[in-house]
Design brief:
- Two copies of one chain form a homodimer.
- By secondary structure, chain A is α/β, with parallel strands linked by helices.
- Chain A folds into two domains: 271 residues, Aminopeptidase; 121 residues, 2-Layer Sandwich (Alpha-Beta Plaits), CATH 3.30.70.
- In chain A, strands 1-2-6-3-7-18 form a six-stranded mixed β-sheet.
- The longest helix of chain A is centred in the first third of the chain and has 22 residues.
- Chains A and B meet through strand 9, strand 10, helix 6, helix 9 and strand 11 of A and strand 9, strand 10, helix 6, helix 9 and strand 11 of B.
Chain lengths: 447, 447
Amino acid sequence: MEQIFGYIDQNADRFIKELSELVNQPTISAQQVGIEETAELLKARMTRVGIKTRIIPIEGGNPVVYGEIEGEGSKTLMFYDHYDVQPPEPIEEWESDPFNAKIRNGKIYARGVSDNKGNIVARIKAVEAFLKVRRKLPLNVKFVIEGEEEIGSPNLARFVEQNKELLKADACIWEGGPKDWLDCPTVYLGLKGLCYVELGVKGAKKDQHSSMATIIPNPAWRLVHALDTLKDDRENILIKGFYEGVEEPTREEEKLLGKIHLPEEKIKTELEIKDFLLELKGLDLVKRHLYQPTCTICGLGAGYQGKGAKTVLPREAKAKVGFRLVPNQNPFDIFKKLKKHLKNKGYSDIEVKLLGAEEPSKTPVGSEIANVVRDTAKEIYGKDPVVYPINPGSGPMHLFQKLGLSIASAGVGWTGSNGHAPNENIRIGDFIEGIKHVALILQKFGP
Amino acid sequence: MEQIFGYIDQNADRFIKELSELVNQPTISAQQVGIEETAELLKARMTRVGIKTRIIPIEGGNPVVYGEIEGEGSKTLMFYDHYDVQPPEPIEEWESDPFNAKIRNGKIYARGVSDNKGNIVARIKAVEAFLKVRRKLPLNVKFVIEGEEEIGSPNLARFVEQNKELLKADACIWEGGPKDWLDCPTVYLGLKGLCYVELGVKGAKKDQHSSMATIIPNPAWRLVHALDTLKDDRENILIKGFYEGVEEPTREEEKLLGKIHLPEEKIKTELEIKDFLLELKGLDLVKRHLYQPTCTICGLGAGYQGKGAKTVLPREAKAKVGFRLVPNQNPFDIFKKLKKHLKNKGYSDIEVKLLGAEEPSKTPVGSEIANVVRDTAKEIYGKDPVVYPINPGSGPMHLFQKLGLSIASAGVGWTGSNGHAPNENIRIGDFIEGIKHVALILQKFGP
């Protein structure tokens, strides 16, 4: 592998430049910005490396960039990634333009650089290095790069259903992942699900002078009262049947939990919080983080939010609420239960829109791909990797798991990557080592 | 008066032009936009008419434009107005630029045209008409035009305290007022008070990926829970001692309430609401509107409010809450009670900022100025005016009432004026008649 690693080191500057070009192209699925441009750019890049690539349209959705390349062995490894990114807002909190990559202190800053474009480039460049040095990959590789992950992959199920043959593979490397708080590489084998909704309440046709609040209904109050029925101040989610099927970790998983680093004081200092929720500590904190579902207000808006005082009675109020779901919970079932809850509490006038639905997913501990990712990570990074039986984030992993693929993650992020937040970044060292890690996975899973 | 009315009619187009110039100059006190420019513009306008005008600075606040002109009689009438306007947001809902007056269907559209610049111009032009036709006013007139009414007049008390001599007068015409739902002129003799606060909650230093919501506190949830303790869903305000001193209308006032037009079906249709709050009707509705205090969410903001889904855990959440207060309530007392309430409920981490405080005020039914405004309105508009013992809006009336002035309102608005909302407007007919009404008040209150 020395020659391949050497090629990666020699071309590091060019790889960074190519990554910069990719992140400078905005691809905001929530706002339908730059989808086609990015798909075309990726296709060109992958084709140039030698990956047979095509853009597969999805009716009513953003296309999938699909690539494949044959190798020497008969095994097939799939890379799942997504080319869309989160909206950059709040833009005023970025230290540099989110769509103009800047290098500062050994880090590349740009929206999507960690989630997920840095990983896309790392994987393409690992393939490039292999082909340049050895002409042939040790196994077949497939790229599935979708364009709607950040809005909950609403059309990917249909794509998977219609392309089962195309998607046959032995295992899958998931989109990415960070080094942990102690700078150890991490591997996760599952993902939480997601049910993301928007609640909307309407009042009078127009904003009113707030002196009318004596007699005209206020949608902001109605929203606050309705939200308050969803969760109490001890974090109990109050929707009937919400916790049905939620399980404790298995004994095998529990063993892994003890090795997960969650350095409490460091995190509290970093995030400037006084305590974790419910003042949890130690294994209880880890267990809650990985094995408990959530009900999160991701956005809240009504009336005047500018400087100073404006005495207005708002005409509407909205909330975005995201539920992270654990195995045995189903987003469509939770959506139904939420609507029923609101109706039972007298809030049937509140409009509930489902903006994203994702099932949870888990690959059993000890699969071949999990072992390969773990062992190669140790070799590349010189540190024991930490294995998460499930990651508290979400994604459409379940669609591929249902095809029979074993799945494990590998990625170039770190705990300060600011995914979904201003000043998203990756460390250049992680990016280059990440390319080597992918190359070594190809080699070790290959034969 | 025929000659004076004739002068007003002949100069109507110019008056509209001058009003347009004044509203085209933004004056947003909440954002400190255009304050000096507007004060200078007013001074120039008033001086040109013959009013001795100066700009009186207020330390730490926006200046008062003060004008005076001697008349034949010994009585003095004061006009209270304000040159600042509400912020124009949400701008996208305006059919034309809020700061570029446009005439459509006999109405002038612009921010501040109704509240309160249309009234300022009407009063100046009534004085102009008198002087042009008769050379002298029948009584002394004083103009007090402040620049912070829309943010709760935080510095006017100090100004009044320091200028008691200057502000001596027999009576005061308050800033303005609309025709009612049946197009009858209205006169109000009092105002509610206001306590306007901003609640702020902080979470982690930065926005987090919403997968962290298992263990990191969410300020949006904390805000929702805290707000929910302020008012129940039957509109009862739950702050201890909030209703102390709140009284029923006097028998004299109650007689006036029966004459107030609140055409329920028309209002519901106009505003597209199904019912009034608590499904109130008739006299109960009027009584609640005038005699009950409020607790209103005027603004609510946290996290992502753009299109689609963003799975973010917000770093802060804010609410703007306005309390309209009735006689015997005091904004500083209510502010103290609110802070105590939040502390007692366990929310002492929530920052509470007082953004505006205004005491309630009432002039007794049957004062000379009230009778003059009512009788002249009947003469000008040919309809019985409706007298409101108290108006559900707010303003610094109490400061002048404490100086011993009797106060009554007169204005150029109508029920569709959209004060504090997009597409603010007045009807040109109302504007011209309003100028005549002011001229007749000068004449009748004069001798």
